[in-house]
Amino acid sequence: MMSDDTTHLRLTVELMQKRKLLKNAEKVTIDGSCLNLAQVVECSNSTNIKLEISEQAVDEMALNAKYLKRKITEEKLVIYGINTGFGNSADTRTLELEKLQKALIQHINAGMGRTFPPDMVRAVMVTRANCLAKAYSGVRPDVVQLLVAMINNDIVPIVPLRGSVSASGDLMPLGYIAAAMIGREDINVMVRGQIMPCPVALKEANLEPLVMGPKEGLAIINATSFAAGTAAQTIYEANIAVLLTQICTGLAVEALQGKMESFHPVHHACLQHVGLKEVSNNMLKILDGSRLAVSTLEMHLPDTYGSLKQDRYSIRTAPQWLGPVIETLKEACRRINVELNCANDNPVIDHRTDTIAHGGNFQGETLSITLDQTRQALQVCGKLLLAQLQEIVNHRINHDLPPNLCGSDVNLDFGFKGADTAMASYMSELDHLANPMSNHVLSAECQNQSVNSMALVSSRLTREALEILQMMLANHLCLLCQALDLRYLRNEVISSMRKMGKRQKEFLATFLKENKWYDFLFHPEESAAKFAEKIPKNGHKEEDIRNEICVAMKSLMSDACNGHLGTVDCLGTGTKKAYWYIRHTVGVPFYHGQAAIDTWLEKILSAVQNGDFENVLLSAFEEP
Q1: Which of these, 384, 252, 396, lies nearest to 317 by C-alpha position?
Q2: Parallel, antiparallel, or unpaired: how do β-strands 27-30 and 50-53 relate?
Q3: Phi-psi region for residue 368, left (φ > 0), alpha (ψ -120 to 50) or beta?
Q4: 136 φ, ψ to 5°?
Q5: Does the CA dihedral 460-462-468-473 come out positive or negative?
Q6: CA-to-CA distance for 456 and 166, rounded, in angstroms?
Q7: pTM, full prediction
Q8: pLDDT (0 to 100) of residue 450
Q9: How far apart are CA 523 and CA 69, in angstroms?
Q10: Are 453 and 363 in contact (CB under 8 A)?
């Protein structure tokens, strides 16, 4: 468990480092208490990692199952779900204990329609195996051993996407995992990418279908593990997305030549929210050394009439805006970690204290609210990205960058106008998804499940919200690299003009008010001729001035198109890592109207979604 003073950054970095180590690991041991988010994510994505159960957990499960058997056979106890019916049918009784478990699985297999992707189901199987290994569920070691063997042989049940209310656990989706474990003939599974009948898959792997003993079917399905397992994946990636949002904010500050004083310690000294303080510190860290962000306090700068005295909200209030987000995500990690390592079926069987207790640990309200809050946090990130993008792409307020961040003739190159429109679409959908799921509750199962958490639906919606935020991040990162190169080009063009103008500052200032700097890049011949004609010659030939300008501008434009600009040298210690990665590793070039940008957006999106950015983030946020 993390201490109270652990920052969100430190927590996320630790998770990324754990996952990095797992990529070379051969096995993960489960014992009911030590499973973490990184392990669930990597085990769900990689079939190379093998799961094993600790010897102590095997021994405890054997003792637990033996204790339950004694209570049933010797003491003749009537225990819910073992010799009674289920839910509102708990008033029935039977001595056919094995048939009862089979009937449970049979009646709950009522799904249809779209199905979960295999990696999500693997995450659930890992989570459920770990929870059962805690030895409070009355199951024999054989149950968990078969589940682990299926994971290790990449036998993944096909599970319907819908049908769970997450109240008595995720009964229906977990029921398909249970059905596969008993080898139901009409159940299909995915094996190394191929769909086949479950009995065939088990036979090929030399695995025997399970004959469910007392409570074992109920123990598998009567739990929050589907919501928890899928949530583990989403929460892990949401943490990465929040760090990327901070990187984007740093790049946006530089693209807009924003002021570092927005992150000054005096702000969080006055408003002592831990999230605000952390985001401010993160921004100062990643922008350290930047030559584009303004590090001098505004109070020490000369005033310029007609210019804003402070930055707009999209960068100035980023710490106050993102502070609650990282506090929410930090708490979400804590809650999900608890759910990954719990006994959450019913009744709880404790041989240690001679206790059998009927209760409701399967009620997933904690998960539902956690995922609702996470989804809202993702929406908050999206809103900030949209505001930044719309400010940067708008030439009326982006501090002298070209319209739509085009990189060639403004009459024919409309740059990122389409990306701007798409961003609004993504945001509208993300706004809709931010609505909570936990307050949409209907009574189910003959009024027995009268309150339902809907946690799995909330988990699914949060996954959709994450996907949209990742698209927004990819869009924004692509646009930011373009904006930064244009900012560098602007500064270089004006610097070149000043060198040519030398002592003629008044002329140059007037000329640049009437003529756009980017016209020199995009139309060097025409602009150079205009400049050479009007500038006082002071003994210089007009032709020489024109040629000098053309050579300088064409050289700059060539450097931009060939990826040889010195933009990276102007950036902060953290932001330069992201810029370099996109430009030189992902291979996204400077945009100058030569092609559609969709291919580049797909490349960045793939890097965001596949975890390729994790090493960049580890490097960007590393301690100096």
Answers
A1: 384
A2: parallel
A3: alpha
A4: -125, 15
A5: negative
A6: 6
A7: 0.94
A8: 47
A9: 86
A10: yes
Residue 106: burial class (beta carbons within 10 Å; 0-12, 13-18, 19+)? middle
Confidence at residue 539, expressed as pLDDT on a 0 to 100 scale = 63
**Separation in Å, CA 612 to CA 41, 250, 388:** 14, 20, 24
Cα 383 vs. chain centroid, distance in angstroms?
A: 15
Residues 115 and 129: their CA atoms lie apart, in Å, by 21
CA dist., res. 331 & res. 466, Å (int): 18
Cβ–Cβ < 8 Å for 373, 437: no
Region for residue 352 given its phi and psi (left: phi exceeds 0; alpha: psi -120 to 50; beta: otherwise) = alpha
Q: Which residues contact 519 (CB under 8 A, 6 or more apart)?
A: 526, 527
Q: Above 70 in pLDDT, residue 504?
A: no
Quote the CA–CA distance of 535 and 427 in Å, as a whole number. Answer: 48
Sign of the C-alpha dihedral computed for residues 334, 429, 392 and 598 taken in this order: positive
**Which segments of 221-344 are extended strands (E)?**
none
CA distance 506 to 515: 14
| Pairing status of strand 155-157 against strand 188-191 | antiparallel
First CA to last CA across the chain, in angstroms?
A: 27
Spatial CB neighbours of 408, under 8 Å, sequence gap ≥ 6: 522, 592, 593, 594
560 by DSSP, 3-state: which?
A: helix
Q: Using an 8 Å Cβ cutoff, are 140 and 349 in contact? A: no
Lowest average pLDDT, out of 135-144, 152-161, 162-171, 180-189, goes to 162-171
From the options 3.40.50.620, 1.10.275.10, 1.10.1760.20, 1.25.40.10, give the CATH code of 8-231: 1.10.275.10
Active site residues: 80
The whole-number average pLDDT for the span 341-352 is 94
Backbone dihedral angles phi then psi of residue 362, each to the nearest 5 degrees: -75, -10
Query: Which residues pair with residue 356 across a beta bridge?
Result: 349
CATH top-level class of 240-344+360-399+417-474 = mainly alpha
Three-class SS state of 196: strand
- CB proximity list for 498: less than 8 A, separation 6 or greater: 505, 508
Give me the helices (H) in 133-264, please.
Answer: 141-152, 171-181, 198-204, 216-221, 225-255
Q: Is the pLDDT of residue 320 over 60?
A: yes
What is the spatial distance between Cα 138 and Cα 215, in angstroms, rounded to a whole number? 7
Amino acid, res. 337: N
Decide: 170 and 225 in contact? Cβ < 8 Å.
Answer: yes
Domain-wise residue ranges, the chain = 8-231, 240-344+360-399+417-474
| Topology alike, domains 8-231 and 240-344+360-399+417-474 | no
Q: What is the distance between the alpha carbons of residues 531 and 535, in angstroms, rounded to a whole number?
A: 6
Query: Distance between CA 425 and CA 295 in Å, rounded?
Result: 35
3-state helix, strand, coil in the chain (%, to 5): 60, 5, 35
